Prior knowledge:
The protein is of the alpha/beta class and 1010 residues long. A hairpin with a 4-residue loop joins strand 28 and strand 29.
Amino acid sequence: MQAGAYNPQQQLPNLTQQINSLSINGQPQQGPGQVKQPPPGPPQLFPQQGLQSNVQQPPQFQPAPGPGYRPPQQPQPVPGGFPPQIQSQHPFPPQSAGQPPQANGYAPQPQQQSYPPQQPQPQAGPPHLGPPGPGGYGVQSPPQPGGYMGPPNAGYPPQPQQPIQGQPQGANYFTGPPVAGPPGPGAPAPGQYGMPLAPGQYPRPPGPGGYQPNLPHAPSGPGVPQYPGMPGAGAAAGTKRLDPDQMPSAIGVMQEDQQSRGGVFQTNQRGLLPPLVTTKFLVEDHGNASPRFVRSTMYSIPAQPDMLKQTAVPFAIVVNPLDNPARDEQPISCVDLGPMGPVRCIRCKAYMSPLMQFIDGGRRFQCLLCKATTEVPPEYFQHLDHQGQRVDKWERPELCKGTYEFVATMEYCRNNALPKEPAFIFVLDVSYNNVKSGLVNLLCSHMKSLLENLPSHTPVGFITYNSKVHFYNIDSSLAQPQMVIVPDVADMFMPLLKGFLVPRAEAINAIDNLMNQIPAMFHDTKETDAVLGPAVQAGMEALKASERVGKLLLFHSTLPSSDLAPGKLKNREGDRRLLGTDKEKTVLTPQNTYYNNLGQECVGAGVAVELYLFNNAYIDVATIGQVARLTGGAVNKYQYFQADIDGPRIIGDLAYHLSRPVGFDAVMRVRTSTGVRPTDFHGHFLMQNTTDVELGAIDAGKAIAVEIKHDDKLTEDEGVFIQIALLYTTIFGQRRLRLHNLALNTCGQMADLYRNCELDTIINFLAKQAVSKSIDSTPQAIKEGVIARCAQMLATYRKQCANPSMPGQLILPECLKLLPLYVNCVLKNDAVAGTQELTPDDRSWMMYNLMTMGVGQTVHYFYPKLIPVSGPTAQLDNPLPIRCSRDKLSEDSAYILETGIYLFLWIGASVNPDWLQNIFGVSNLAQLNVEPITELPDVNSDESLRLRGFIRTLRTERQRHMRLTVVRQRDKMELVMNRFLVEDRTSDGHPSYVDFLCHMHKEIRGLLNQ
Length: 1010
Ligand SMILES: [Zn+2]
């Protein structure tokens, strides 16, 4: 079946969101009680100063406009509890040899290096993770626009087979170039697929649980399908149609991995390839960090830089430093060494870990990262046993675990003072848009329940703004909350020294009161201006004044365009036509440096900014999003917001956000063993030097990708060691260090690299790199670069590692057999390739989203989950996804399609009327008005309960209240959903999986013939 035609006139956001046409009355209204305040003079409180107060006894509070929202759901830990199973054994003989990753023109950061390691120097100033260790690294330069994220992954079933010397583990994956002709003679050799099949064996559907990689191979020439747009494409390609079911299947790979690697994963071996990120498994930490915290693109690193370069496989890690262990896994231990503080290597300042080897009867230890020897502090001394291990090794997490925490001492704290509890400040735009859409009312009516997601002692504060900025005194001793206005937004200062930040439990009544008053005060506002920059500054000044770090949650609706406030922006939406062209960077980069500078200032004060945008028009996400990007925050967008329709979404998202573990005022540092070093970083943070990743805050849902490069050849058999240290303040105000240690193998055989690749992580990294490049390259160059790199990965394998075979065969390494599929998904993804069908704001938003995604998120962002939810095959308690193609949708069924951002329910035209009745309470599909539906109706049936429960589970797993879009077969919304059926060709010219695989084959053959 052909993917439906996509109408470029229809924008995704316009279709997925109800457009609310607002007639905006632009008459500014003189706000009551505005008083010119002298700059940093003493604050003037209205009542005391005899000024007119804005805070009056509010009219009776109106209940929230949002009809019947449920209380936000508490996110729950990822369902864990898998039956422990025997983990499959993977022989990973240590090997050596290697080459540095190909510098395919990625990495937008300047590299500075100073190697070899320097002696530590006394640290002055703010807490860092320690004096610069060995090596300086290339870094994302601070005020750069756009930091972004990565792709989904697929699976690589580790090949159980013992590798033949010099051969890739029996995983020559073959998908012969698509040919419909009769297969040639011969059968696949064991461990190597892709040999021509015996007649009669072809075609063969994928076997259950795994793809049968047998395809007839075609001699090159007429039978080989061509990539659309390639010379010769067309007739030849069209006549012989490849069976997509013969292509490697992401679903098959995932299911196979679940079967072979589900259960317990013990991290007791160096360089052990973890199960796929999609596999449900339990981790036992035996000295290496769990793959939930850090994944590497490869677990066997070539000792020779040239070898790595030749393969073009990137060497990178993707870190979720603050993620939690799954339920049923051991919690992370916290070690308190008292006033002594964490024990560290004298030279590179690495922290005590299983990577330190004790010598000299336990009096000294040698660091595996830099090889320096350090004296053991007397209070930390312990005797060694007959094997040279400290006798207390198994009692100390820092000696036997991959991940653990230290309580940090004063010297790790800002201004050498123990931190106070971090605060949350809600900064609410109360201009016309937000009032009219119902947002102000909605937030205020849910504030009390939202705040219950925070610890009772966490200080909270409230600011509102339009063309002025208003602070609120919520001191519980006051009869009423008081408002203080700062009208001179060009010179922001904090007018309230007391009563602004109050522990949320203590202020509960005052907050209630205030939340009743705010909607009443602004319900008839005519103000259309909202000063974004000064509002951020106000929150930052408030935190500074109280000597706390914290987070600003900003709810903003319009392009900052006031002449009177700093940060004025011009409307660039007219440049939308530039998207997808060589000039697109002009709309994807910030139009001025104001928001970058503001972001830097916030990080300096330990402040993170989370942006929640409720725009009805262009708002310049590329520019204002910088303040979130640089502080470690996120950009959340709710265009055309209407409280009665989108209310549950924002309230759900906020509840997830507030209940997620978060680290404040953080610095992350990656140390590696000699011979390699981190060079480029991708994510949301600020880097002002080459080593320290600074974050106003980082939460459990955010990841940082780090590229690592050789700067020397490595020693064979020795391994590569990585230590990631995150210094942060907990929500309770405790300063801590979280350590993740990972030991990788080194190898001398290229085949070992290919056998130990992590495709999902490779895709995550390549996509982030592609997005980072979109600010200084062209879409065409980026696309060609990605394709060329992937072709090189596969061609080098074919040339150097695979068994000899017919030149017309496509042979894929087992771990990378989904590489063509996933690369095609990346290249058609809106974050990487969004063109004029998107608005510049949506494109920028997608780019920001991608940059903080972990590997678990990018998998389904690039290859969406498509799950049957009606009929006998629906198993909602143990859902079985199917291939993401229109051909897999059956007219008599219904399906959920989910990407982590979007959630569709597709209903076939001949769906069972009973199902319809049970889910929607109607018996005829034509009777169903799907447009206003964003939540399933509350129908009292088992099927309805199960499906609603399933959607809730998906949202909880994603920590995002994805809006539900219901699509009937042949509705126009199908055109939108079709874009997410990523195996199909899109109407705007992106190739199908089959087309792209053929194109890759051609590219590979081109390289092999050189
Ligand atoms: Zn060291």
